[in-house]
Every structure is written in C-alpha cells, then in structure tokens.
Specification:
- There is one protein chain.
- This protein has 420 residues and is an alpha+beta fold.
- It folds into 2 domains: 246 residues, 3-Layer(bba) Sandwich (FAD/NAD(P)-binding domain); 163 residues, no CATH class.
- 31% of the residues lie in helices and 26% in strands.
- It has 13 helices and 20 strands.
- Strands 1, 2, 6, 7, 8, 9 and 20 form a 7-stranded mixed sheet that branches.
- Strand 18 and strand 19 form a beta hairpin.
- The longest helix is centred in the C-terminal third of the chain and has 16 residues.
C-alpha cells in the first residue's frame, strides 16, 4: 500500500495551493484529481478570464462575506489578496485591476493563472495523479486509508478540497460532502449561489438583452400565489438589498446584482415565490423623480412612454407604463398626480415574483457545506477528526461576485498546506 505524508483530494484552487504548500514544506504530498487535468474551475472563472481576487486588503475580503467572513482571518493572514497577486506575478503572469476592483490576468486568459499555479506546484515536488477519483476515505492506524479507482493508499494527513456542487460539469459533484459527513461532520444543506433567477412574469422575457447598469435590488421573504408582474405587491419581510447591474433574460434575471442576491432565493422553500423589488434609478429620490416627470410633462408635450427616456431604454419604458396601468399613447401633460405617482412607483419599486434559480448547473459557487463550527479556522483542521483538513468551496462559506470566492479558496487551501 502506497504511503504518503499528505493526500490532497481535489485539484481546484484550494487543492492546488494546499498541495504546493505541503510539498514545499517537505511533506510527501500526493494530489488526487478525478478529471484529466486540474483547475477546471479556475479555467471557467470570470467568464474564462479568471477574476482571481479583489483589489482590497484582507479585511475587505472578510467584510465581503458578512459575519461568516471572520472565519477567514487566519487564512488571509497566510495568503492575502496582495500575496496571491505576488505569487501569480512571480510566475510571469501580469495582473490588472478593473475599475470595479476585480483583479484579472492582464492577458485576460484564465489558463495563464492556472499555468502559473501549476509551475509553482511542480517545483514543490508534489506528485499529481489525474483521472484518479477517490472512492473511499476512512481513518486508519495513525492516519487515513484512501481507496481510489486505481489503488489503495495511506496518508498521515488528508486535505479535502473537492469543491461544492456548482458547475457539476467541471467534476464538482458534491463528493466531499459525503466523505465529510461519513467522518462525522455536519453538512449545511448545499444550495446554488451566484446563479441567475427565474420568473414567470411574461413581460420580463420581452425585455431580453436589456441591461440596467445601476439597480438597487431588495429581496423580500417568500410569498405565494400568482406573480403580480408589476407594482403594488404585498410587502414581505426584507431579506436583504444589493446594488449593481441587472440583466433581463429570456428566463428571468441575471447580472451582478441578481447573482449576489440569488443565495436568498435558493434558501427559500420549494414552491415559494420571493419578491424582487427593483429601484431602477437609485440615484434619484421618489419625490425628485415625481418633480422631474411633472416638469417634463408640461414642457415637452410628449407621450407618456417618452417621459422615461432620460433614464431608461425605450422598451423598458414601454413596459413600465403598462405596469403603471397607463396608456402609452396618452399625452404626459394629461396625467393626474395619482397617475404620475403610479409611474414613479413602477420605476422605483418594480416588483417581480421569482420562481427559483437555474440551479447548480449555472451557479458560480455553492452556499452551504461543511459547518464552520467544526473546522479550526487557524489551521483548517477538523475539530472532529484529527489530521483531516477541509478547504475551499466545500466549506459553508460563500461571498459576492468579484473574486472573493476564489480568494477564499486559494487562501484556505494555502493555510491547510501550511498546517499539515
């Protein structure tokens, strides 16, 4: 039976850095990867461009994850955003910062980031085994017994970094949850996050392809019944709010602001209909918008549908007029104040009942996973199984779009490799 000091299971961002650090510290390290090559998630991240981190400090990464982000303090102390950039650039891959703070390789090619990590890994003398999925894992003697599709081996320490359930075509099919649960860990129910949203409001599909660059999106608790498809819906309990770009699609909604809010939808019970309330011009207060519309109505003599062209695309303006229960061919000057306020409400509080998400197949990350309460954040070692380490998306930790999740994966993997 092959004997190893460290076996790293899963060759994603967390596993690659875990194996690199373990081997660099003279641990006899084996990296097991089920695919024919490692780093599949790196290659597709950021639309194939690899948004590897965000231009902020360690505290900025922590804050982006909300209260659970405290778990990342030690991992980010080991490998913060600048240290990650330095590691990549030391391998000859220049990076650049976008205006929104996202960090990409200057080439725009995710393959260059993966190649940089692999160069570092190969110099560390870790052994890489591809197309060798893990079949069984259990404690054995002074370590662990691992059974793969090709052999049986032992390791003193094991790092589980198999990823979550998002983009299962990359090989992330949730295997790690089963092994962690078998070894006694609590698994917070995995669900899709950073995933597009589906609605049955037919008018949304009519707006396919329209992007609104700045939307304040509020998500309210699950409701039921038919989609109102417009304004004036019953107020549900506010679950959170986000701001950013929104994209209308043939199935519903996407864009950064929607992806960031999607974890709330996926957490709702099946059959529920969480409410999206969209402020399409968050930089203008309702009273200001009413005054502007009133002034425009008296000056131009235009039709109602043309009133909103200053702020919004014509197709969307036409839909908003309908949602406000107004006739598009009416002259704006003929609107009563009550009718004009309905139009303001359509712009500032456009309501859309959602019916779900596109699921793990289109999710960028997984929410849920191995409970953080059962992992020592100072080392990534299990509090329940000595010698077992958990890193990356397998943990119950998910953040917003913008490179935060990839940074967390790299950092937790790096810390695990430092600790084995």
């Amino acid at each position: 039976m092959d004997e190893w000091g460290v076996a790293v299971v899963g060759g994603g961002p967390a596993g690659l850095l875990a194996a690199y650090r373990a081997a660099a510290r003279n641990r006899a390290t084996l990296l097991l990867e089920k695919n024919h090559r490692p780093g599949a998630k790196i290659l597709i991240s950021g639309g194939g461009h690899c948004n590897l981190t965000h231009a902020t400090d360690a505290q900025g990464i922590v804050d982006a994850f909300g209260p659970p982000g405290r778990f990342l303090h030690s991992a980010l102390a080991a490998l913060g955003p600048q240290q990650l950039v330095d590691l990549i650039e030391a391998e000859g891959v220049a990076t650049q910062v976008e205006p929104d703070g996202k960090v990409f390789p200057a080439s725009g090619k995710a393959s260059h980031v993966l190649a940089a990590v692999l160069r570092r890994l190969k110099r560390s003398a870790a052994t890489l085994a591809f197309e060798e999925p893990l079949v069984d894992l259990r404690p054995h003697a002074s370590g662990f017994r691992l059974v793969t599709a090709k052999r049986t081996l032992s390791a003193k320490k094991v790092v589980l970094s198999t990823g979550g359930c998002s983009y299962p075509g990359c090989g992330t099919t949730g295997d790690g949850y089963r092994w962690a649960a078998t070894l006694g860990h609590t698994i917070v129910t995995p669900r899709p996050a950073l995933v597009p949203i589906v609605t049955d409001a037919t008018w949304v599909a009519d707006l396919q392809g329209i992007t609104i660059p700045d939307v304040l999106l509020r998500v309210a608790g699950a409701g039921s019944g038919p989609s109102p498809g417009g304004t004036g819906a019953k107020r549900d309990k506010l679950q959170g709010q986000w701001r950013g770009a929104l994209l209308f699609t043939h199935f519903g909604l996407s864009g950064p602001v929607v992806l960031n809010a999607s974890r709330v939808v996926s957490a709702c019970p099946r059959g529920s209909r969480p409410l999206f309330e969209c402020d399409l011009v968050p930089g203008v207060k309702e009273e200001q918008l009413d005054e502007m519309l009133a002034a425009a109505s008296t000056r131009s003599g235009c039709r109602v549908a043309a009133l909103l062209k200053r702020w919004l695309p014509r197709r969307l303006s036409d839909v908003l007029v309908v949602q406000a229960q107004l006739a598009s061919d009416r002259r704006a000057a003929e609107l009563s104040r009550q009718e004009r306020l309905r139009l303001v409400q359509a712009v500032k509080r456009l309501s859309i009942r959602t019916t779900g998400t596109l699921g793990f197949e289109k999710a960028e990350v997984t929410a849920g996973g191995v409970s953080l309460n059962e992992i020592d954040s100072r080392t990534m070692e299990s509090k329940r199984v000595p010698g077992l380490f958990v890193a990356g998306e397998l943990l119950d930790l998910d953040g917003p779009i913008g490179g935060y999740n990839l940074q967390a994966a790299f950092s937790t993997g790096y810390l695990a490799g430092e600790s084995v």
